[in-house]
Amino acid sequence: MIDELHVTDVALIHHATIEPAAGLTVLTGETGTGKTALLSSIKLLVGERADAGSVREGASGLCVEARLFLPDGDEDGLVARRRVTADGRSRVEIDGHISSVRELSERVGSSVDLCGQHEHQRLLKVQAHVDLLDAWAGEPARAAREAYRSALSDASRARSELERIQEMGRSAQEQVDEAAFVLRRIDEVGPSEEDYEELEETLPRAEHAEALLRAAHGARDSLIGDGGTLEMLNEAASLLHDAAAYDRVLDRYADALESAVIDIEDVASDLRGYQDTVDFDPEALDELQSRMAAYQGLLRSYGPRVKDVLKRREKAAELVQAVQNGGELERKARRALEEAETRLSQAAKTLDKVRRTAAPQLAAAVTKEMASLQMGSAQVAFQIEALPRERWAAAGPSTVELLYRPAAGLTARPLRRIASGGEVSRVMLAVKVVLGEAAGSAGAEAETLVFDEVDAGVGGATAVSLAHVLARLAKTHQVIVVTHLAQVAVMAERHYLVSKAEGEGTVPETTLREISGEERVAEIARMLSGSATEASLAHARELLAQRA
Predict the structure, then answer these.
(1) SS3 call for 322
(2) How confident is the model at residue 445 (pLDDT cuts 50, 70, 90)?
(3) Helix-strand-coil percent breakdown of the chain, rounded to 5?
């Protein structure tokens, strides 16, 4: 729900702040005062398209910001901000972080439903009717729809696999021959990533074995041969020890040289052992070089990595096997598809059963609400028609359409074809009430519903009925209504008056302020009779007292 909304430079609004009640909040005012500017602000807040024309004349840009408490959201709420510059560029922030209009729409737009005379056109779209029905049916429909979608996805994958295998079976003979050639060529080498890594390490040693032996032998001879490093170090250490009889400092240097002698002897020994590990074998070298050449050929053809070669072999083997197995892969894939289709058929029957059970119940509940809105004997009904298997989609295996019967005895027809704008508006309101009460009884978080001109063309007993229906809806939702009906206005927990006055320069300014007490009485009286007469004031007080 919207906890607080602040608007800057939207249409005729310069600065305005409202704090809607948790239940019903109304906005009233004279015609032309700019009541719809606030609705334009809410549209921006829920992620609708930005229009530079919404920026107040003379302003550099507009800003709409709000604190909201969303279902399953943080207990401290969420702060959303939308800015639009005079040249149409849009900027979004959510909780102080730069965000996108798409995220704004997903996080905020999903919890705020705009129910104006344009927005209720969604009710005329057949695609939306199945969602209404599933929302009413609740958890059984959710579970059945999820199971159906999972089964539909499984069946789609199984069909794709069968088609893939069939396509392999239909491959031209040269493709099969090529795959067999690839398979033979790779299998002749028998590559593996481990073998290639070992070959990369072993081959350089084998190719340079003579140089390695010469280096090891030459280094060892330089260390321990006649006149080598070891002999010279021993001689130097002996000289220092002899001279140390006159200066003990030289003993320290002699000891260091003797320690170096030990290290050199160790290195010489290790070099001797290293020589034993280096084997110059021309035949083994030729074999290693041939194997590396074979690897390089495979990598050039199917690489660049050994894993790519192995993957190419897998595909070639699969194609050859598909032919050699005489259709066994296809038979397995066909059985898998049949099993998936059986599961899908069962899931489809379950989903249809849930919907066919819920449909008359929802239609009856909506029809009852329509009667309370003074729609006479008008009724709604759901038509559910099974689709051929090839037309099954994520929404289900059947079409679901809301039908409208203007009066008893008339034929029910698609709502979009015969209902007037006012009738659609009231049907939509009836649906909202029924779904809201169903969600409320299930303990769901209330969403925000914003109504614009839902009471257009309504008066008399219908106005009273409409007011009571909105009040009931406000028990399960936060409801914000722009209204011209006093009967609706008196039901509100919070009442904002919209007025227009001269602003800076020549641009008028729309203001919003909460009213109560005698000021609210005067506004109700104006709505009743066009002016605050004694009679209208008394009537206004009576209506407010009845509401209380």
Answers:
(1) helix
(2) very low
(3) 60, 20, 25
Query: Using CA atoms, how far apart are residues 474 and 497, in angstroms rounded to an integer?
Result: 20
For 23, phi then psi, to 5°, come to -100, -110
Token reading at 101: 């209009």
DSSP states along 194-257: HHHHHHHHHHHHHHTHHHHHHHHHHHHHHHHSTTSHHHHHHHHHHHHHHHTTT-THHHHHHHHH
> Residue 441's pLDDT band (boundaries 50, 70, 90)?
very low
Helices (H), 4-138: 35-45, 101-107, 126-137
Which residues, 6+ apart, have CB-to-CB distance to 465 below 8 Å?
Answer: 372, 373, 374
Burial degree of 479 (CB within 10 A; 0-12, 13-18, 19+): buried
Between the two ends of the chain, the Cα-to-Cα distance in Å is 24
Extended strands (E) in 412-489 = 413-414, 448-452, 478-482
Rounded to whole angstroms, the Cα distance separating 501 from 26 reads 20
- Rounded CA-CA distance 293/271 in Å is 32
**DSSP state at residue 20:** -
Alpha helices in 46-138 (DSSP H): 101-107, 126-137
DSSP state of 522: H
CB 489 within 8 A of CB 483: yes
By C-alpha distance, which of 422, 496, 488 is closest to 456?
422
